[in-house]
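Below is how a single chain appears once it has passed through the pipeline. First comes the sequence as given, then the structure the pipeline wrote out for it. We keep one example in the README because the format questions we get most often are answered faster by looking than by reading.
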Amino acid sequence: MKKLSEKQIINELSERFEQNRIAVLEQERLMNELEQVNKKLMESESVKTQFLSNIRNEINNPLSSILGLADKLSQKPGDLKQVKYTSSLIHQEAFSLDFQLRNIFTAAELEAGELQPNFGKVDVESLANSVLDKFEHLIERKKLTIELKCTDSLAFITDAGMLSSIIRNLVSNGIEYNKDNGKLILDISIRREKELIINVIDTGVGMLAKDYEVIFDRFVQLETGVTKSHSGHGLGLTVTKAQVELLQGSVHVECIIGKGCSVGISIPIAEEDDIHTFSDSGNVFFFDDDANDSEAEVF
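Resulting structure:
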């Protein structure tokens, strides 16, 4: 065996120490990554637990109200004034339940990768008016002033169902976080005939810039617990962002504390070759590619 010189021994030891140092640093890096992953898993578990608690209340509360109001209505069928009042309350609770369930089902489809765009020509103005009509009782409750800015008979090629869901969630968010006697603007326009721009502007309390991304996280609300002042379960804007991205679009937020927020989306126009439907005032016509041009199914 060849005898190593003192310099060679020192070099060999230095090389081994350096390898050990690198190995220790790599191990520390991996440990830090594992700690971060574990922290995120714990946060995710906590968020999901909070979500399940919220969603239980968001479903049970309107359902219990509907059952109680219906029972009350059946006991006093002759009082017309009471019947009208109770019926309106049932409608409000049923609307809330339907809205929450729609988002839950859509979120489940997105999670499973089952939601795909079905493009068609959409009458955006009619669709927007139809959505606003559905929220009329909530608008009246807060005494909001509504302004719809939209070109007459604005037609755009996109997925009607997703666009309706997007506008519903943006409008719902704008109403929920608005102040009483405030204003809600639904601004819809086309940019260069190739991009649909929708902005919902409220006059609520606003939001810090650091929270812009947080509001799109699944199950997350800026307020939590039994003392939170706003309803919902933190899925609406998550669903909105996912649907916008499926349509190859983007979401943007601008807020001023104490003044309100503008939550908007931009969606590129789809190719005409992908058209399979035409939507008008909430009615969607599905065309069969194998059938004659004059044949269509209406839903």
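Residues 6-75 form the longest helix (70 residues).

See the next section for the split statistics.
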